[in-house]
Structures are given as structure tokens and as C-alpha cells.
What we know:
The chain is of the alpha/beta class. It has two domains: 3-109 and 218-328, Periplasmic binding protein-like II (D-Maltodextrin-Binding Protein, domain 2, 3-Layer(aba) Sandwich); 118-212, D-Maltodextrin-Binding Protein, domain 2 (3-Layer(aba) Sandwich), CATH 3.40.190. It contains 15 helices and eleven strands. It has helices spanning 15-18, 43-50, 53-56, 69-78, 90-97, 123-127, 149-161, 173-182, 192-201, 226-231, 233-255, 261-272, 281-290, 303-315, 325-328, and strands spanning 3-5, 30-36, 59-65, 83-86, 101-106, 118-122, 140-143, 166-169, 187-190, 204-209, 221-225. The longest helix has 23 residues, at 233-255. Residues 1-28 form the signal peptide.
Amino acid sequence: MTHLTRRGAMALLGGAAALPVLGTPALANTKVTVGALAFTSHAASFVAYERGYFAEAGLEVDFKFFQAAQPMAVAIASGDADFGVTAISGGLISLAEKGATKVIGGALSEEKGIDGQKILVSDAAYQAGITTPKLLDGKKFGITQSGSSFHYMGAKMAAAEGIDLNYIPLQKVPAVIGALKSGQIDAWAIVPHIAKPLAGSGAVHIIGDVADYIPDYQVTSVFTSANNAANERAKSAAFLAAFAKGAADFNAALVDKTAGDDAAEEMVKLVHKYVYADRPYDKAKPGIVNGAMRINAGAALNTTSVKDQLDWFIAEGLIKGHITMETLVDPSYVETM
């Protein structure tokens, strides 16, 4: 895990004045740890950090980077991280059922007209004639863990197509990528900033869109510990407000493209500090630009989509016990839909 801390460089302007939408009270140098993945889909947090929105809200942020959703959920529950932005997983839901975690906002979403997550197949599978998702019957579909968002996406696609998939848990995203490129698995689904460069290399092929099977999918959510949600409202509201400002900048620059070419270029350079940072800028830029998906305005949460995900986990027996939306989600922080 990588740690990054912003210290002293930004003047604290006062959360209430800077962030009126969520009514955030001013905090003073409150240290928080934010879980993230090095994905374009996590850009709202990166923008809020780099442009001082967290600092303006009185938050001193330290990032912890993970390679899968479920370990992040465990970190939130254990107190090793304060806030996380990632997909809803079986691990997150189980921890919520135990009273350890709470979803408090929304982040990445599938939206009609905006390029979204792709269904990929290996070159070997493609050359063997698998050119549409329907032809994946009985094939190996890569996931990080059982009960991950990859599992959910694969299952929804399989149910719609009337096929069965053989799910292969590989624990980490890099391991899934390696298995797909080498033909050890046949298929996977992932965000476009990863899917498109892989397809461009010729090692894999895009054969479908997740949005065709899960319209208006709330891909990632903002979550925290149940204690933070209930008892640290000022801190939680401050985080969400700063996160929302970062999302607004990102959407304007790379999704709606209303901020102009200079702003778009500046945004790509900012995101490149975290995404494909090991690649030269000119190599990383296309993947970042082409991978820009909508991050919900105001950190709004699509509870209809979250409920569908919860119902699927329950129906598949991937979580134990009985859990309701009220246990999983605190809807008091943001607009819900």
C-alpha cells in the first residue's frame, strides 16, 4: 500500500464557507485516511486532494492504495482507513451487517451516452470465435473474489444471456489482467481506462458493454465506518463535500467537457500522478481520457441500484444473515435516487 500525505501547503479556508452545499462545519487539521485504487474512477478523491478541497474542509488526508475492494472494506471496519471509495462487495455488506461499515454516498456510475465498463475476452478466446457475450457459456470469467463487483457484473450478464460462467477468483486486479492476457481465463469486465488500453494492445478484445446488462449501475460508493457515519458527522460531511467538489471538476473537464481544452489537459496531468504513474504521460493520457466515466454530482447515491446489488448477494447466498438497506446505507448525507 502507498501512503501520501498533504501537509501544511494549503491554507485552511474553513469548510462551511468553502462548501456550502452540504453545510459542512469547519474542522481544524483533522487527519483522515482514504482508501483508494489507482483507477481513473477514483479521481474525485485525487482532485480534492491536489486542489486543496480536503484542506479547505479542514481534513489532512493520507491515501492508502489497495488492489481490490474487499480488503479496503476490512480496513475501514478495523479503523485502518476512515473513508473508502470502491464497489459494493460481499465483504462490505457482511461488515455492514455486523455494524462495522456504512455506505454514505455514491461515486462512479454507468450512464447512457457515457462510455462505461467493457466486457473483455482473451485473444485466444476471440480467435476461437467468442465475439459476443452470449458465446461465453461455460467459459472462465475472471473475478477478484467471490462476491466482488466483477462477480456481480458477470452474473448479471450471464443471467441476461441465459448462460453459465465458471468464475475464477484471482484476488487482485493485476492478477486478473495477467490471466486474461495469457489466456488462463477467457473473459472479464472492467472500467474503460483499463479495458481500452488492453484492447488496443491486441492482447484482449472488447465484446460488449456492462451498461447493456446493468443500466444505471452504481458502480462504486463512498463508505465509512458505522461509527463515523453516526458519531462523526462533521468529518463525514466534510469528506463528502470535498469529494463532491473534486467530482464536479473531473466531470466538467473529462466527462461533460465543458471546462475547455486547457482544463482537460490539466486534469489528465493531475490524474496521471495516480493512474498509470509508471508510464510516460503520452502513453498514459489516452487511457485516462477514454476511461472517464461519470462520478455522481454531489456524491448522490443510486439506492435503486444498490438495492439490486444487495438483493443479488442475498439471492446467491454470498452473505450470511439478514441485512436490509437501512443496515447497509445511511441516506442522510446525500441525495438518493
